[in-house]
Design a protein that fits this description.
Number of strands: 8
CATH superfamily: Aldolase class I
CATH topology: TIM Barrel
Distance between the termini: 24 Å
Oligomer: single chain
Structural class: alpha/beta
Shape: globular
Number of helices: 7
Number of domains: 1
Largest sheet: 8 strands, parallel, barrel
Helix content: 25-40%
Strand content: 15-25%
CATH class: Alpha Beta
């Protein structure tokens, strides 16, 4: 299984303006093909039902649901925290959150790394300091797997800067969850990703 590319949406039902599945469906209609299910405070049964509902949105368009944590909830893709344990048995796709050179150096079987925070973020204020595009590019240069950029990314210009720095994907949370029109916002951000030619990537 190939790792995330393009615009990647992380869920946060508390930040969403409407029911989470509706917001994600709108984002998928706007071009999103990768979604990371967070909501780790939910009971497993409720979270598994939510995962099933999101897969029903993504599967018809060839999209992929990645589940945060070692339990794939019936799927084949997980995303682990920086110090989180590996899942038994190994799923088809494993990602991990990383924030610095030391954490990137501990990667072993991961297929991609989610590197953050690129910019100051409202979701996790004070988390950082932000890497900014230059810091992101430096970490991408030493990372053994493709990198998805995360943290405070809300504008088309920020998406383009992350892709120009070498990011294989750009992850957003608040930009979609808090959007009045998730479909239009997703289309704008995915379009910005698509307009960065391969010649601009490092």
């Amino acid at each position: 299984m190939t790792g995330p590319s393009g615009l990647v949406v992380l869920t946060d039902r508390r930040a969403a303006r409407r029911p989470l599945v509706e917001v994600v469906a709108d984002a998928v209609a706007g071009g999103v093909r990768w979604v990371v299910l967070r909501e780790r405070d939910l009971p497993r049964a409720e979270r598994a039902a939510l995962a099933d509902a999101l897969r029903r949105v993504l599967t018809p368009v060839g999209g992929t649901l990645v589940v945060a944590g070692p339990d794939p909830l019936g799927g084949s893709a997980v995303h682990l925290s920086a110090a989180g344990p590996y899942p038994p048995p190994q799923p088809g796709l494993i990602g991990r959150s990383c924030h610095d050179k030391a954490e990137l150096g501990r990667l072993t079987v991961e297929d991609y790394a989610l590197v953050s925070p690129v910019y100051p973020t409202r979701t996790k204020p004070g988390y950082g300091p932000p890497l900014l595009p230059a810091g992101l590019a430096a970490l991408i240069g030493i990372c053994p797997v493709p990198v998805v950029a995360l943290g405070g990314i809300e504008t088309a210009g920020q998406v383009r800067d992350c892709v120009a720095a070498g990011a294989a994907g750009v992850a957003v949370l608040g930009a979609i969850m808090r959007a009045e029109d998730p479909r239009a916002t997703a289309a704008t951000l995915q379009g910005a990703f698509d307009t960065v030619g391969s010649g601009e990537r490092r």
